[in-house]
Every structure is written in structure tokens, then in C-alpha cells.
Please model this.
Amino acid sequence: MALDDLKSALPDYAKDLKLNLGSVIGNSNLPQQQLWGTVLACAIASRSPRVLAELEPEAKANLSPEAYTAAKSAAAIMAMNNVFYRTRHLLSDPEYGTLRAGLRMNVIGNPGVEKTDFELWSLAVSAINGCGQCLDSHEQVLRKAGVDRETVQEAFKIAAVVQAVGTTLDAEATLAANG
Model:
């Protein structure tokens, strides 16, 4: 199982990550589609080849083809939106907020899966990418749709752990290569 491979690859100093990885994925209360879509979108957003290679096959096995594509779409569109909206928010000139974005984002309106699932995956990716404006926007859509705070938090817990695992494993690989 890929999850066990990732856990065993983590160094001893990252014992908490081993435990958290098993917990946020292995003991999640999220339905399978929400869980594995979140895992896949976060694995992509982590930019860790090892994490993506280990988690993608299990995500693909647990998702319908539509959900698999939608999770990848969430990671892709948020890679763009998080940079755009984070930058617009961080600039001190508020006039940028009044300008038309002029970017295609059709997948958000028609993701091919339940809107709440796509919003949850988008929120998790936005957590990894650190876009407060996108986090607020997706959280508000989820809460208005009746999604509870525990579910929202579950998504960004997965994001936090997947990102930390990727960072740690990639750092260890670099250190080992440098010798």
C-alpha cells in the first residue's frame, strides 16, 4: 500500500507526520470521493514527485473517472487562481481588485462532480498554496451549502499533512544526494 510506503520512508524525526498521515487518510470521516479527491489534489499541489507517485494510484482506484479528472482540475485551476488572487490581494493598490480577471475558470462552474466536493478540493489546494482570498471564498461556498466546519477542517488537515510529507521526503532525497 502506498500509504504504508510513504510512512516507512519518513525519517524518525518526522514520527508525528507518520502518525498524522495514517490518521488523516486512514481514519478520515470523509466519504471516499471527498477523501481521495482531496488527497489527489493535495498530492499534485504539494509538487512532490514522490508523494504524487505514491498516492495517485490509490486515489485513482478509489475515484470514479469523473472525480479523478475533477480533482486534477481543482489542482490545476487553483494553481492559477491562487497566484492571481493572492497577488491581487497582496498588492497595496486596491484598484487591481476592481479589474476584470480575464482568466478562464469554467471548470469551477461545471466540474463534473458534486459542487461541494470540488469546492472542498479547491479549498485544500488553496491551503497549500497559501491564498487567503481563495480560502475564504471556498469556505463560504461550502458553509452556505451546509458543509460543517469539521469537514472543512478535515480537508485542510489533509493538505497540511500531505504538504509536510512531501517537503520532508524531498528534503531527505536532496540531502542524501548531496551526501
Notes: The domain at 32-90+111-165 is CATH 1.20.1290.10 (AhpD-like). The chain has nine helices and no strands.
